[in-house]
């Protein structure tokens, strides 16, 4: 039977407090922003998925690499933030085709133009 080694700092209250995740409560403005983003993502998926797009690409400032997120993954993360104040843990996309992902700004512009041309009731 395998057992994890005991944490040598387990009885140190300062250590336990330092490792506790910091999750500030969402205020009304944060909640409204998340709901707006979720609504936009739902619209992006309805308009862009039939065009062959799978999600959004985000340039990460920390690692200087693009990150690819499917519509469903992003919506699940936003719902997790709204419901439990934490995003779900997820694996990065495996070998994504960059041609199938767009930036948030592109998705917004494309969707706005599509809606003006086709109307809200056709989505």
TrEMBL record:
<dbReference type="InterPro" id="IPR035165">
    <property type="entry name" value="DUF5319"/>
</dbReference>
<protein>
    <recommendedName>
        <fullName>DUF5319 domain-containing protein</fullName>
    </recommendedName>
</protein>
<dbReference type="Pfam" id="PF17252">
    <property type="entry name" value="DUF5319"/>
</dbReference>
């Amino acid at each position: 039977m395998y057992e994890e080694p005991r944490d040598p700092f387990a009885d140190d209250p300062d250590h336990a407090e330092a490792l506790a995740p910091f999750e500030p409560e969402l205020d009304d403005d944060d909640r409204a922003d998340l709901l707006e983003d979720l609504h936009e993502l739902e619209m992006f998926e309805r308009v862009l998925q039939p065009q062959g797009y799978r999600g959004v690409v985000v340039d990460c400032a920390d690692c200087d690499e693009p990150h690819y997120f499917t519509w469903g993954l992003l919506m699940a993360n936003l719902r997790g933030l709204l419901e439990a104040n934490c995003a779900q843990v997820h694996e990065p996309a495996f070998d994504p085709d960059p041609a199938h992902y767009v930036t948030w700004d592109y998705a917004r512009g494309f969707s706005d133009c599509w809606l003006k041309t086709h109307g809200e009731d056709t989505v």
